[in-house]
Amino acid sequence: MAYDLAIIGGGPAGYNAAERAASGGLKTVLFEKNAIGGVCLNEGCIPTKTLLYSAKILDNIKSASKYGILTDTNPGFDFQKIMSRKDKVVKKLTSGVAMKLKAYGVHFVEGVATVQGDKDGMINISCNDELYSVKFLLLCTGSETVIPPIKGLADTEYWTSKEALELKELPKSLAIIGGGVIGMEFASFFNSMGVKVTVIEMLPEILGAMDKETSAMLRADYTKKGIRFLLGTKVSEVATGKVFIEKDGKQETVETEKILVSVGRRAVTTNLGLENLHVELQKGGVKVNEYMQTSHPGVYACGDITGFSLLAHTAIREGEVAVNHILGIEDKMNYDSVPGVVYTNPELAGAGKTEEELKASGTDYHVLKLPMAYSGRFVAENELGNGLCKLITDNEEHIIGCHLYGNPASELILSMSMAIDRKLTVEELKKQIFPHPTVSEIIRESFFV
Fold this sequence. Notes:
Blueprint: E1 2-8, H1 12-23, E2 28-32, H2 38-43, H3 45-62, H4 79-104, E3 107-110, E4 114-119, E5 122-127, E6 130-139, E7 143-145, H5 161-164, E8 173-177, H6 181-192, E9 196-200, H7 212-224, E10 228-230, E11 234-239, E12 242-247, E13 250-255, E14 258-261, E15 265-267, E16 281-282, E17 285-286, E18 299-301, H8 312-327, E19 340-342, E20 348-352, H9 355-361, E21 366-371, H10 376-381, E22 388-393, E23 399-405, H11 409-421, H12 426-430, H13 441-446
Parallel strand pairs: 1-2, 1-6, 2-3, 6-18, 8-9, 8-14, 9-10
Antiparallel strand pairs: 4-5, 5-6, 7-15, 11-12, 12-13, 16-17, 19-20, 20-23, 21-22, 22-23
Helix pairs in contact: 1-4, 1-8, 3-4, 3-6
């Protein structure tokens, strides 16, 4: 069977690229070995945010008296209903993706696809004992959970994010190994559900490469909520009900009912047959250029497989760039303003450069920042809460970074991501009219610091 384009991987990069390609006139086949929608729709973005929204509603009800709202009883929850609602949301969205692919005329094949090689300008792929010949190949195989070589882990029952999303009942206590975005979102959810949570992180601060000031604020708020943070701490060994840790030469044992391993993800590049096309790899994934093209001119790679920006929204944009290049449409990838969000309660979001990144490179910069409490809407909706709006500019006052802590940071960050991408200056943005009263006004107020 002959096609213009084959896509291996049905996650956000793959299924969005398939729709774009088919709408552009390319005869397209999409291979997915598991469920359509990939990790994002089935085991990541969507199910976790569904659970976090239930937790947020519970948090809001618990704090209702601060807003003059009285409840007759202490708020409770039906954990089985929370989990079943998560499954319902996932099913609805994955079904929607399947319907769109069908509507666009994309041929979907469920199975393991393997690259056999290329001949006479065509790339050959096998799947389910069928051979497919295509002009172009787009690799969107995503990533998998990293399992660290911790002593005793192989002999101990533990969760990854996948198992944590399949729970039937809540544990009394949970130790999370890794304080990155995934670890903190699960910490937030289980904390709201009344689970005793301990977060163990090797680095001196949570959330990896995100802005340290806002990360510390998030950690401080969750410490008040009861989460125990062990920073700069190494896990030396695990056993059933125990995590053995080391810090500053001292050893300690963390007693816990369950263990969640969340130390990161890595690109899936093996067992694909890439060696048959001599596709060049680099540390962390497949090497690509600004058009998402690999060392083989007919092969493209998008999403987590590149090992660069392991975010669904980045993957979607990369897929668009790849398809546009195949179609001859001028386009190229730009990573300068990719927004990142932590969907805790409160939320944290950032785009562009961080102070830590600029200091490390010796780059001059300036910071404009204000507490979120300078926004009337924020004060009205966040009783006794606070947050931060931090803008970073270069010497010409171009916005090169923005970091927000406080709800709804996830919805506010796009405007600053666009400003960074378009290299707008503070003076240009001062002339924009922000709606009043909105939390977004804190961005404009920060321009006048």
